[in-house]
Design brief:
With about 90 residues, the chain is mostly helical. The chain has one domain. Helices cover about 55% and strands about 5% of the residues. The protein is built from 2 helices and 2 strands, in the order ββαα. Strands 1-2 form a two-stranded antiparallel ribbon. The longest helix has 24 residues. The protein is elongated, with a radius of gyration of 18 Å.
Length: about 90
Protein backbone atom coordinates (compact mmCIF):
# COMPACT_ATOMS: atom_id res chain seq x y z
CA UNK A 1 0.00 0.00 0.00
CA UNK A 2 1.36 3.41 -0.92
CA UNK A 3 1.57 6.33 1.49
CA UNK A 4 1.01 8.78 -1.35
CA UNK A 5 -2.15 10.85 -1.40
CA UNK A 6 -2.70 9.86 -5.03
CA UNK A 7 -3.13 6.50 -6.64
CA UNK A 8 -0.81 5.52 -9.46
CA UNK A 9 -3.39 6.39 -12.12
CA UNK A 10 -2.38 8.83 -14.84
CA UNK A 11 -5.00 11.46 -14.03
CA UNK A 12 -7.22 11.67 -10.99
CA UNK A 13 -10.14 14.13 -10.81
CA UNK A 14 -10.29 16.51 -7.86
CA UNK A 15 -13.42 18.66 -7.75
CA UNK A 16 -13.40 20.55 -11.07
CA UNK A 17 -9.70 19.87 -11.77
CA UNK A 18 -7.59 16.93 -12.82
CA UNK A 19 -4.17 16.05 -11.50
CA UNK A 20 -1.52 15.54 -14.16
CA UNK A 21 1.16 12.86 -14.27
CA UNK A 22 3.70 15.57 -13.49
CA UNK A 23 1.82 16.56 -10.34
CA UNK A 24 1.48 12.96 -9.20
CA UNK A 25 5.23 12.46 -9.75
CA UNK A 26 5.93 15.67 -7.82
CA UNK A 27 3.82 14.55 -4.86
CA UNK A 28 5.46 11.12 -4.80
CA UNK A 29 9.05 12.36 -5.04
CA UNK A 30 8.50 15.39 -2.78
CA UNK A 31 7.08 13.14 -0.05
CA UNK A 32 10.02 10.72 -0.33
CA UNK A 33 12.66 13.46 -0.41
CA UNK A 34 11.08 15.51 2.37
CA UNK A 35 10.91 12.45 4.61
CA UNK A 36 14.55 11.64 3.82
CA UNK A 37 15.58 15.21 4.76
CA UNK A 38 13.48 15.15 7.94
CA UNK A 39 15.09 11.86 8.96
CA UNK A 40 18.55 13.28 8.24
CA UNK A 41 17.73 16.32 10.38
CA UNK A 42 16.73 14.02 13.23
CA UNK A 43 20.16 12.38 12.97
CA UNK A 44 21.83 15.79 12.61
CA UNK A 45 20.21 16.95 15.85
CA UNK A 46 22.51 14.51 17.66
CA UNK A 47 25.43 16.83 16.82
CA UNK A 48 24.06 19.17 19.47
CA UNK A 49 24.20 16.60 22.26
CA UNK A 50 26.52 18.33 24.73
CA UNK A 51 27.29 15.04 26.47
CA UNK A 52 28.88 13.79 23.26
CA UNK A 53 30.17 16.91 21.49
CA UNK A 54 31.62 20.32 22.32
CA UNK A 55 30.81 23.29 20.11
CA UNK A 56 30.66 27.02 20.46
CA UNK A 57 27.50 29.04 20.11
CA UNK A 58 29.11 30.67 17.06
CA UNK A 59 29.57 27.25 15.43
CA UNK A 60 25.98 26.30 16.22
CA UNK A 61 24.76 29.63 14.82
CA UNK A 62 26.80 29.12 11.65
CA UNK A 63 25.45 25.61 11.06
CA UNK A 64 21.86 26.52 11.86
CA UNK A 65 22.13 29.69 9.79
CA UNK A 66 23.25 27.63 6.81
CA UNK A 67 20.26 25.32 7.25
CA UNK A 68 17.87 28.25 7.55
CA UNK A 69 19.39 29.86 4.45
CA UNK A 70 18.92 26.62 2.53
CA UNK A 71 15.25 26.45 3.50
CA UNK A 72 14.80 30.03 2.23
CA UNK A 73 16.63 29.10 -0.98
CA UNK A 74 14.32 26.11 -1.47
CA UNK A 75 11.29 28.35 -0.97
CA UNK A 76 12.60 30.69 -3.67
CA UNK A 77 13.47 27.86 -6.03
CA UNK A 78 9.88 26.68 -5.97
CA UNK A 79 9.13 29.74 -8.11
CA UNK A 80 12.32 30.38 -10.10
CA UNK A 81 14.52 27.27 -10.36
CA UNK A 82 17.22 25.88 -8.10
CA UNK A 83 20.88 26.20 -7.23
CA UNK A 84 23.29 24.10 -5.22
CA UNK A 85 25.42 25.20 -2.29
CA UNK A 86 27.65 23.34 0.14
CA UNK A 87 28.29 23.98 3.82
CA UNK A 88 31.77 24.32 5.29
CA UNK A 89 33.22 25.77 8.49
CA UNK A 90 36.06 27.22 6.38
Amino acid sequence: MTDSIYATTAVRPIADHTVSDKHIRFVNIAEKRANKVLNALDVFRKCFDTQTYDYTSEEADKVLGALEAKVLEIRSSAERGSSHTHFSFN
